[in-house]
Design a protein that fits this description.
This protein is α/β, with parallel strands linked by helices. About 55% of the residues lie in helices and about 10% in strands. The protein has helices at about 15-30, 40-45, 65-75, 90-100, 110-145, 150-160, 165-170, 175-185, 195-205; strands at about 10-15, 35, 55-60, 80-85, 105. Helix 5 crosses helix 9 (about 195-205), helix 6 crosses helix 8 and helix 7 (about 165-170) crosses helix 8 (about 175-185). The longest helix has about 35 residues, at about 110-145. The radius of gyration is 23 Å and the shape is elongated.
Length: about 210
């Protein structure tokens, strides 16, 4: 059995009650925690981005479609691993959803074994993304602790400027630059310039 904690939640969004019930039975039988919704709007009103989960969503629904829900999540920068299910799928639609980050695309009736494997793969991705997001938040929190002068020094270190050049740029002594540099490395919890660069550049890449 898999972990049924909130960190392993499968969100099902489908206007067909029979499909929701079938998916719930299959996934709960495999140890997953399941939350089912009859519409994209209902899902969005209840969804907590802090919960690590995956999304199984019907493409065609009254109101907001599954494709529109995917666009909404992308716009909100919510990297929720998603698989689309539909009885009306076609190849161009499948390619479009995959390009936008969907994990897979299944036509009804779908194979239970395939779906179980896809959900397992989605959770692997979900936990990796959650860990990356947590690391990014930690790095951003550490960078926010720097004073404005330390941020100026850091920017120049990243640009490859030497201590003497940084001192000239900022009109301060080399010893002051060295002191700022030591404080920066302490606050960012790094021991080498290479690690310092990784933390500093990670903010630019986020």
């Amino acid at each position: 059995m898999r972990n049924t904690s909130p960190s392993n939640t499968v969100f099902i969004v489908d206007d067909d009650e029979a499909v929701r019930d079938s998916l719930r039975w299959l996934l709960e039988a495999n140890g997953y925690r399941v939350r089912a919704y009859e519409s994209a709007e209902a899902f969005l009103s209840a969804y907590d981005p802090a919960v690590v989960g995956v999304l199984i969503v019907d493409v065609r629904m009254p109101g907001m479609s599954g494709l529109e829900l995917q666009e909404h999540l992308i716009a909100r920068q919510i990297p929720l691993p998603t698989v689309f299910i539909t009885g009306h799928g076609d190849v161009p639609m499948a390619v479009s959803t995959i390009k936008k980050g969907a994990v897979d695309f299944l036509e009804k009736p779908f194979n239970d074994t395939d779906l179980r494997q896809i959900v397992a793969n989605m959770f692997d991705r979900a936990h990796r993304q959650a860990a990356e997001a947590a690391n990014r938040r930690d790095r951003e929190a550490m960078l926010a602790r720097l004073t404005s002068r330390e941020q100026q020094v850091l920017e120049r270190i990243v640009a490859g400027r030497l201590n003497k050049q940084i001192a000239d740029d900022l009109g301060i002594s080399i010893k002051t630059v060295e002191a700022h540099r030591a404080n920066i490395m302490e606050k960012l919890q790094v021991a080498t310039v290479a690690d310092l660069m990784k933390v500093a550049l990670s903010k630019a890449d986020a």
